[in-house]
Each structure stands twice: as C-alpha cells, then as structure tokens.
Amino acid sequence: MLNAENAEPLYIQLKNAVQSAIANGSFNQGDKIPTEIELAETYNVSRITVRKAIEELVRDGYLTKRQGKGTFVNRPKIGRKIEHIISFTAACKANGVSSHSIVTERKKLKADSDTAERLQIQPGESVLYIQRQRYAGEQPLMLENNYYPFDRFAFLMEANLEGSIYELLRSEYNIDPNQPGETILQIVLADEPQAKLLEVPIGQPLFYMNTIIYDQYSKPVHVGKQFIIGDRYQFTL
Questions:
Q1: Is 93:101 a contact under the CB 8 Å cutoff?
Q2: Which of 30, 59, 111, 116 is deepest in the core (most CB within 10 A)?
Q3: Could you confirm whether domain 78-236 is CATH 3.40.50.300?
Q4: Which CATH number fits domain 10-73: 1.10.10.10, 2.60.40.420, 1.20.1000.10, 3.40.50.2030?
Q5: Which pLDDT band holds residue 172 (cuts at 50, 70, 90)?
Q6: CA 37 to each of CA 71, 193, 214: distance values in angstroms, whole numbers, following the listed order
Q7: Do residues 118 and 126 lie in contact, with contact meaning Cβ atoms separated by under 8 Å?
Q8: Does the keyword Transcription regulation apply (predicted)?
Q9: 22-68: per-residue pLDDT in tens?
C-alpha cells in the first residue's frame, strides 16, 4: 500500500507500484490495466493522483492510452544503432525478444532506374524482390521489402527465409552484408496494405527506412525499403 506520510508524493509512489507490477509480470505486455476508479480504490488515493501517475507512465513509454478502450502496457521496444549493420533477428535477440519471418512475396522483377543505379546494374535488368513480415514475439513489427541483383542472388528464390537472411548469406555463401550505404529515415503513415500486414490501424505512424547494403567486397547486396511500427522500435544515432 501507499504511505501518505512518506516524503515521496503519492502519485510517484503509485507510478513506482505500477512499474513494479510491469517488471514482475503482474501486468504483462499488451495487458489492459485497471481503470482509474479501480486503481484509486485499490491504492486508496484520489482519481487525480491516479491520473497524474498514469500520465507520467504514458509519457515515459510504459503505458499507452487508446481512446474508448482503456490504458495498456506497452510492448518492449526493439533498439538498434542506425549506423551499424545488425540484422532484425540479431536486434531482437539483443533485446531479449524472439523473432521469425513470413515471406509474403518473392518474385523476379525488372529494375527501375533508381534501384538499378544503386545495385550497379542496368535499368530493366532482373532483380529479386522479397517481402517479409518480420515478427518480434507474436506480433509483426516490420514489413521488409528487399531488392537483390537477381543473377547473384537467384538462390534465394528457393531458400528458407524464416530466419536471418544475413546469417544465411554469411554461413552458406561467404557473403557478409557488413557495410551500410546511404540510409534515409522518415516517418510515414500506414496505408491499407501495410496496415493489414502489420496488424495496425490505417494511418498508424511508421518508420520508413530506405537503405542500400554492401558486402565485404563493397558489392551491393540489396536495396531495402522497410516499414517499421514506430511505437515499438527506436533508433540510436
């Protein structure tokens, strides 16, 4: 219970109590927490105290308010340094989260002028387009769209791509995607197809990362156009 005689304000005590409940698993990621009235009764404090504690927890990223639905415990954010090459699988592992992928499209296309220039091939030459849903835990987090020079990466047409493509390239083909080229990071709003694949509402803010990755010999590996759920991912510069 909270202690009114403690020098620490009651709303801070309540904030700490909710944080502890999240940390020890009493409130799990994605759970709806009790209402303001229920928390006020449980901890014997005013609704104003509860509201202030909740506002602080929302501001700090522990909780999210959903209009008309309640307040929910946030899923953990996956973090990575934008200037370093680290696969999605490795980023999830580093953050203590399981991962897997589902291939939604895999086909041969003709390169447009921009993609051809970045992959150092001629416009109209074949590229291998692979789209995957990337899952962190049980929920999709990223919609990955990669374009590979077809002649060099045709073997990916038949490969099992549930895990890390980077690890597959390193272990089986001596191709090490270890050099990032120019990377552009923007905020966009999810359109209908993206929202469906990422299981978010249309208009949800997404990170859009447009990048080119090279191997250890400075040969282009792929152009990447990735859409990432903004409130579950963070980049460190």
A1: no
A2: 111
A3: no
A4: 1.10.10.10
A5: very high
A6: 13, 39, 55
A7: no
A8: yes
A9: 777 788 878 899 999 999 999 999 999 999 999 988 887 788 888 88
Ranges of CATH 3.40.1410.10 domains, the chain = 78-236
CATH 1.10.10.10 domain position(s) in the chain: 10-73
Give the span between the Cα atoms of 206 and 227, in whole angstroms. 6
Two tokens, residue 132: 């995957």
Extract the tokens encoding 120.
């150092």
C-alpha pair distances (Å), 217 with each of 105, 176, 200: 28, 9, 39
Looking at residue 6, its pLDDT comes to 78
User: Whose structure tokens read 């249309």?
Assistant: 202
Which tokens sit at 100? 């897997």
Confirm if 129 and 111 have CB atoms less than 8 A apart.
no
- Interval 96-154: pLDDT, tens: 788 899 999 999 999 999 999 999 999 999 999 999 999 988 889 999 999 999 999 99
Rounded Cα distance between 107 and 19, Å, is: 46
